[in-house]
Amino acid sequence: MSEITSYAAARRAGYRFPLADHYGGEQIIVRDRVMRRNYKVALSETAWKRLGYVVLAGCKPHARVSRQVGQGAKTVGYGVYREDQVEKKAGKK
Fold it and tell me: 8-67, pLDDT tens digit by residue?
C-alpha cells in the first residue's frame, strides 16, 4: 500500500478524524493529525443496558460527550463506556 499523505486519500481509505467516544482501530498520522478507521464507539450506560450489559462498578467513563436535544435549545452531557468496561447482565431465574 502506498503511503497516505492527504486527508482526501485517507478518507477514501476509510480513515476519519476521531471523536471523544471513538477507541481502538487502525491509526495513522496525516499532516500531524491522527486519523482512525475500524474504530469502535463507546456507548452510554443507558445504551449498554438496552443491549443487556451493565457498567462495571467503579469504572470511570472513557469520555464525556455532549449532544443537542430537541431543536438545539438544550445540550446534554453524559459519560460513555468502552466494551471492556461493561459485562453481560446475569440472567433472571
Answer: 999 999 999 999 999 999 999 999 999 999 999 999 999 999 999 999 999 999 999 998
Grid cell listed for 63 = 469520555
Q: Pick from 47, 31, 52, 41: which is nearest to 82 by CA?
A: 41
pTM of the model: 0.82
Provide φ and ψ at 59, rounded to 5°.
Answer: -75, 130
Burial class (CB in 10 A: 0-12, 13-18, 19+), 81: buried
Contact partners, residue 14, CB within 8 Å, separation at least 6: 37, 38
CA 54 vs CA 1, 6, 25, 43: distances in Å: 41, 41, 24, 11
Residue matched to cell numbers 503511503: 3
